[in-house]
Amino acid sequence: MPEERMTTAERWPDRLADLAAQLPAPLDALIDAMIAIVAGRPGQASAALARVAEYGVSTQVVDDLVEATVLAFGVSRWSIAGRTALSEVHVTPADEADTRPLDERLSQHFAATQDTVPEAIGDLVKRLPALGELYLDTRQSLFADATGDPALRELFLALVSARAGFVPGGQRHLARARSLGMPVETLRTALTAVVLVEGTAGWEAYGRALWETPDD
Known about the structure:
- The protein is mainly α.
- The chain contains 11 helices and no strands.
- Helix 6 (100-112) runs parallel beside helix 8 (129-144) and helix 9 (150-163) packs antiparallel against helix 10 (167-179).
- The termini are far apart.
- The mean pLDDT is 87.
């Protein structure tokens, strides 16, 4: 039986990690954590940040690394891997920073959109308040635009979230789209486009999960 070979895309994060291994140990561990977060590998990211702690790197540097990674590559990276990895460093969120005013604003915003704060986003606000503030401001501006169809906006968010690798977030947005009246034919059209552009790989990666998302 022929040996299964990894694709170039699958090998890429490992190759970057190999290159980083040539750097000084603390920097190698930090870069390894960043690569793992971007690649959506929470176990590898947690192990890398554990090595970072052993080298005596400050938690502020770790916070800055995770925040920069999530800022550059999107909040899906937080939900998939960043959150798990950072929990290995911080026993208490944000070193006991008082985020109650931001928590309240976040809850009010989600309530105004007939939604509740996802656990991962609530944790983001507590652990990385500056990034949580940016997330909230950006989301508020998105939902403040009254010129578009709310159901289609949720569908766009569903497709983008799932395409980024965070399928549960995509399913959440899709359920919201359906509750706002989006017909199943619109979803069928969107997923047909997914298959057209990405083939069966896109269907298997996230298209099927979106199609099978139950209505609220």
